[in-house]
């Protein structure tokens, strides 16, 4: 498994963004309402088709509009977990979680083992004989997390997956998700409005505004020295300081910038994003610090933990 490279342009939504997430790392995508976070997830998942687009996970190119390639959602092998659990209503919980591994050709026994393990992890084993209609919203969300992780995806996409959970369930689910992501070493994109999600899960943090990535760097760096007003608000500081040396998380752009220069960068000439241009093959980030400390292929997840 290796990193995820993504770029897409959707003119009718004013969307023109690119991201790179190294294998084994989680990138949190934050931004104001209507900025383009769900659009990003939909594009990567294949639920929305871009006018121009490129998507690769590792060596597998899933979308390349220049070559007319568009892999349908069900063939992408991506785990997508949103606010709605979207469980199969006619299957019991256990069968819902077994469905992914079974459809990938795993044996009945292997699928059962994996589903049972994940249902225990998310504290939903006692619901395994129920149908989705017999679950509460929070219980269904736990099952949906188990199902998303069961199929050993190429990459994981999470669109506010804990929004429906209560204050006790959310920390437990973060722990399960964090452990699974660390174990699986796949790239993950997490859309969230919640700083706790960012602190608990995100190695890197990207800010999207008006369909453009305006900041992308290791989480600790963004929170320490935000260069966008939105990240400053998230970090709880009222000033934008910016970084003084190359500290982007995922790509070749080394020069830190103020919001103003970021806006200039993202002007009509469509320059490379802070997260780097999509690369057609596995490649090491060109930024030496990023490669060494944060974004190197196969590097371990390093997000800070929060007391939960
Ligand atoms: N189905 C659609 N058709 C046309 N435009 C859309 C559609 N869905 C979203 N948009 C527009 O695309 C832009 C990005 O929306 P998106 O839902 O991706 O934002 P978001 O960052 O996820 O917002 P939120 O935090 O409110 O969920 C917005 O301007 C929105 O109005």
UniProtKB/TrEMBL annotation:
Name of this protein: ABC transporter domain-containing protein
Superkingdom as given in the UniProt entry: Bacteria
Ranges annotated as biased composition (Polar residues): 297-308
Stretches for region Disordered: 243-308
Keywords associated with the record: ATP-binding, Nucleotide-binding
Entries under PROSITE patterns matching the protein: ABC_TRANSPORTER_1, ABC_TRANSPORTER_2
InterPro entries: AAA+_ATPase, ABC_transporter-like_ATP-bd, ABC_transporter-like_CS, Molybdenum_import_ModC, P-loop_NTPase
Pfam families: ABC_tran
Database matches in SUPFAM superfamilies: P-loop containing nucleoside triphosphate hydrolases
The ABC transporter domain, residue ranges: 4-235
């Amino acid at each position: 498994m290796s990193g995820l490279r993504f770029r897409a342009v959707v003119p009718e939504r004013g969307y023109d963004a690119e991201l790179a997430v190294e294998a084994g790392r989680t990138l949190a995508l934050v931004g104001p309402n209507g900025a383009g976070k769900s659009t990003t997830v939909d594009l990567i998942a294949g639920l929305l088709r871009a006018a121009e687009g490129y998507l690769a996970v590792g060596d597998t190119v899933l979308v390349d509009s220049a070559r007319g390639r568009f892999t349908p959602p069900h063939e992408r092998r991506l785990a997508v977990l949103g606010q709605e659990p979207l469980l199969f209503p006619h299957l019991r919980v256990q069968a819902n979680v077994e469905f992914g591994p079974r459809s990938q050709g795993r044996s009945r026994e292997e699928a059962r083992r994996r589903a049972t393990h994940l249902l225990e992890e998310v504290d939903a084993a006692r619901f395994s004989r129920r149908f989705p209609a017999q679950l509460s919203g929070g219980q269904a969300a736990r099952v949906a997390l188990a199902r998303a992780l069961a199929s050993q995806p190429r990459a994981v996409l999470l669109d506010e997956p804990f929004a429906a959970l209560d204050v006790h369930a959310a920390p437990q689910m973060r722990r399960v998700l964090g452990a699974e992501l660390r174990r699986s070493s796949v790239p993950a994109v997490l859309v969230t409005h919640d700083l706790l999600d960012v602190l608990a899960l995100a190695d890197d943090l990207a800010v999207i505004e008006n369909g453009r990535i305006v900041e992308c760097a290791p989480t600790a760096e963004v929170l320490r020295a935000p260069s966008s007003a939105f990240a400053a608000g998230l970090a709880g500081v009222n000033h934008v300081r910016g970084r003084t040396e190359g500290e982007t998380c995922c790509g070749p752009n080394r020069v830190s910038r103020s919001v103003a220069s970021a806006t200039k960068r993202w002007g009509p000439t469509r320059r490379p994003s802070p997260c780097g241009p999509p690369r057609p093959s596995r490649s090491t980030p060109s930024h030496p610090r990023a490669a060494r400390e944060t974004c190197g292929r196969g590097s371990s997840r390093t997000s800070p933990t929060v007391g939960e």
